[in-house]
């Protein structure tokens, strides 16, 4: 069963009851299920991530759009559909009205998940890595919609930085310009997605979920711009992708993309696919290690937030 008060956004009964009671809820994206992992592992990981949230004492709210309706909290049948339905679209925030009008189905990216979670009243969202400013921006001016959404959405995103195929310094500059707060979780440097560190410093360091929740309360107390808080949580050193291998394969991938004329929306899946093949799947395992850690931390922050 699910709440049907809103014709284009429906919460599962479990999520609706948790939010009404002020219980901790963690939003999870669905693109990792539909586009990020091979079958049947994608469904196994989807269940695993929801299990991590539940074990911590919070309620998982995996988000997707099915038949034009934004679903906040998926049941088993809906999870299976996202994991197995061929041709499922990848939806950013800008795509949501079109998907609703055309009764389309799709998995939600960081921008769409952040927007829908906030609209449903969920404050904490766990993901792998954010989108950002692409390399060669001065020529292509390619920048992820994630940054714009985070600049005007009051949500806390626990992530392992931005995808390492991007221009990390430029992305951090854009986040600063747009008023998005970035705090390193027990780190002084911004995580490198597959890598423990990108080498770029962060202005703020926090040591506990309680401190993250306190920052969230401060955002509300001060008011002003409805921007996000990014809690940058690095993948553990012993679970990161080998940095030398990462740099070598990424250089090859960038050269191959330039040689083959891959640009625009095709560049990210091209580079990530090249990295997965070039590292023998090790990049995927580092990604999953990051997502698991981010999900566990997000659940702990949600518990602290619910105690307000």
Write the layout of secondary structure elements.
Blueprint: E1 9-11, H1 13-21, E2 25-28, H2 31-34, H3 41-55, E3 59-66, E4 69-72, H4 76-84, E5 89-91, H5 96-102, E6 106-108, H6 110-120, E7 124-126, H7 137-140, H8 145-151, E8 156-159, H9 168-177, E9 181-185, E10 204-206, H10 209-222, E11 229-232, H11 243-260, H12 267-278, H13 282-306
Parallel strand pairs: 1-4, 2-3, 2-7, 5-6, 7-8, 8-11, 9-10, 9-11
Antiparallel strand pairs: 3-4, 3-6
Helix pairs in contact: 3-4, 3-13, 6-8, 10-13, 11-12
Protein model, in words:
It is built from 13 helices and eleven strands. The mean pLDDT is 93. It is of the alpha/beta class.
Short description:
This protein has 308 residues and is an alpha/beta fold.
List keywords for this structure.
single chain, 308 residues, alpha/beta, 11-stranded mixed β-sheet, 13 helices, 11 strands
